[in-house]
Amino acid sequence: MLKQYLEVGKVTNVHGLMGEVKVQPWADSPEFLCQFKTLYVDEARFPMTVQRARVHKNMVIIKFEGPTDVPSALSLRNAILYIDRADAKLPEGAFFLADIYGLEARDAASGEVLGKIADVLTLPANNVYVIKGGKRELMIPAVPQFIAETNIEGGFIRVNLMEGL
């Protein structure tokens, strides 16, 4: 079951005097956050309308409808922001990392089940999938030479195991 609401960032501070907030984006690029007209705040998923959003030094500056000054914007500090999956436009073949946790990892050559994706390490060069629950824990770089197939609907990924992995 795919989650409807996905975490996309955290409000770190206010920006300026007009109620804007600075957001640390949890996406491949900060520009991704700028496409949304509505963001949802914290576990309550309180919807807030975005008046404008722009990228500033790898952060996103957002002006929400509502807060018009520093004190009202400060109330959002440390809030986790969510998007509704239905509002997101992803490129063909792209997916949300939240959707791959728990997928079964299979050896592309033999079909052997190696375990499940337990964690995703987001490293500067590329993501690394941590596979647990099999004979041994594996760390598989999320790049085409290692990932033969990602089938979210089918609930699995197929990986090319290399000697020494």
| Cα separation of the termini | 31 Å
Assembly context of the chains: single chain
Domain module count: 2
CATH fold group of the largest domain: Elongation Factor Tu (Ef-tu), domain 3
* Total count of strands: 12
Largest sheet: 6 strands, antiparallel, barrel
Instruction: Tell me the fraction of residues in β-strands, as a range.
Output: over 45%
Assign an overall shape: elongated
Mean pLDDT score: 91
Instruction: Give the CATH superfamily of the largest domain.
Output: RimM
Structural class: mainly beta
Radius of gyration: 19 Å
Structure description:
The protein folds into 2 domains: 5-87, RimM (Elongation Factor Tu (Ef-tu), domain 3, Beta Barrel), CATH 2.40.30.60; 100-159, SH3 type barrels (Roll). It contains 1 helix and 12 strands; from the N terminus they run βββββαβββββββ. The protein has one helix spanning 70-74, and strands at residues 5-15, 20-25, 38-41, 46-56, 59-64, 80-84, 104-107, 113-122, 127-132, 138-141, 147-151, 156-159. It is elongated. The two termini are 31 Å apart. The mean pLDDT is 91.
Structure in a nutshell:
The chain is mainly beta. Helix content is 3%, strand content 46%.
List keywords for this structure.
46% strand, 165 residues, elongated, 3% helix, mainly beta, SH3 type barrels, six-stranded antiparallel beta barrel, six-stranded mixed sheet, Elongation Factor Tu (Ef-tu), domain 3
